[in-house]
TrEMBL record:
Segments passing through the bilayer: 31-50
LysM domain location: 104-148
Gene3D superfamilies assigned: LysM domain
Protein name in the entry: LysM peptidoglycan-binding domain-containing protein
Signal peptide (from-to): none
Keyword terms of this UniProt record: Membrane, Transmembrane, Transmembrane helix
Length: 151
């Protein structure tokens, strides 16, 4: 492990500050130190924030029709009967596409997210709120069942 000579480091810092003081005569130590600390914090937080990778896909951007298509594509092994009733699935999809039916609020969703997921456009949150006897400022709870009205 390399030893750090604090006297050399202190000397370099003092030389740097002396050069700044020479270039900017009105500069004060406390302002210089504060500026360096703020700059260091910005660098640390920026690196920390932007280095986060491999985030999972945001499922709230998927529409019900995309989720239903994924569910219908599930394979059934030989000898097993499909437990999906195609008439129910088709009817449900037709209702969702027509903008009617019900949906369950998922974790972390608000009216905007539900409208975006179900209606395809978050701007329809006001119609969703009105259909459920709510205001646009009403909070929704996870698991709450909402009537879907997109038109």
């Amino acid at each position: 492990m390399k030893k750090v000579n604090f006297n050399d480091t202190k000397k370099k810092i003092m030389t740097s500050f002396a050069q700044v003081k020479k270039d900017i005569p009105n500069a004060e130590w406390r302002h210089l130190v504060t500026g360096v600390v703020i700059f260091a914090l910005v660098v640390v937080f920026s690196v920390s924030y932007f280095s986060k990778g491999n985030t999972p896909i945001d499922l709230s951007d998927l529409t019900d029709s995309e989720i239903m298509i994924e569910n219908e594509a599930t394979e059934v092994t030989a000898g097993e009967e499909s437990m999906v009733d195609e008439t129910t699935t088709d009817t449900t999809m037709a209702k969702v596409e027509a903008g009617e039916g019900e949906t369950v609020v998922q974790k972390g969703e608000g009216l905007w997210h539900v409208a975006k997921r179900v209606c395809g456009a978050g701007e329809k949150y006001n119609k969703l709120a009105e259909a459920n006897g709510m205001t646009i400022y009403s909070e929704v709870a996870e698991g709450q069942v909402l009537k879907v009205v997109c038109e």
